[in-house]
Amino acid sequence: MTDDAPTFRTGALSHRHPTPVRWTADAPALAALAMTLDLPGIDALAFDGAFAPEGRDDFRLEGRLTARLTQSCVVTLAPVPARIDEPVLRRYLADYADPQAEEAEMPDDDTVEPLPAFIDLAAVVAEALALALPPYPRAPGADLGEAVFAPPGVEPLREADLRPFAALAALKPKAPEGGGSDAG
């Protein structure tokens, strides 16, 4: 494994058999990526996969991203450790047509991209990591509580007040004890 993320010239990739790809990020790369993603830290990051030919001119990058990192709790900003273990799939198509019309439908397959002259593995891994991060990390025991705001002299509106059907449920007659009917 190399310390610097390799850049692959797509014209040099084999069209006959897969080209293995293995990368472990070094300390400067981890620090730079943590800063880019606004993370307190990334302890480890690795990608293991291969470029495989797909058809005559296209390629598929398939592999696994693993990482150990720290995020900030969305409530307290306390450090929250996380482990990422995600599959990564990108398909690079030589004849990719980018939708040009204003109201063009976006393709359903978000793994498809145009085939560039060079593929920067660090950029692919950074994007995959950003998409794999837990969106709202919380430290154990972190609770938002209930925020109550009102001008002076006004009864504050609480979350329970926003549930109008809760009051109706309280008015519903209760079933008699025993649960059965007295009809004989």
Short description:
The protein has 184 residues and is an alpha+beta fold. The chain contains three helices and seven strands. The relative contact order is 0.16.
Description:
There is one protein chain. This protein has 184 residues and is α+β, with helices and mostly antiparallel strands. The protein has a domain at 7-132. It has 3 helices and 7 strands; from the N terminus they run ββαβββββαα. The strands form 2 sheets. A 5-stranded mixed β-sheet has the order 2-3-4-5-6, with helices on one face. The protein has a two-stranded antiparallel ribbon with strand order 1-7. It is elongated.
Poorly predicted ranges (pLDDT <50, ≥5 residues)?
A: none
Q: Note the beta-strand portion.
A: 25-35%
What is the count of DSSP helices, taking H or I runs of 4+ residues? 3
Major β-sheet, in short?
5 strands, mixed
Q: Could you tell me the mean pLDDT?
A: 84
| Helix/strand order, N-terminal first | EEHEEEEEHH
Radius of gyration: 27 Å
Structural class: alpha+beta
Features:
184 residues; alpha+beta; two-stranded antiparallel sheet; 3 helices; 7 strands; 16% helix
Q: What is the topological layout?
A:
Blueprint: E1 7-9, E2 19-24, H1 27-36, E3 41-54, E4 58-72, E5 79-93, E6 112-114, E7 118-120, H2 121-132, H3 164-171
Parallel strand pairs: 5-6
Antiparallel strand pairs: 1-7, 2-3, 3-4, 4-5
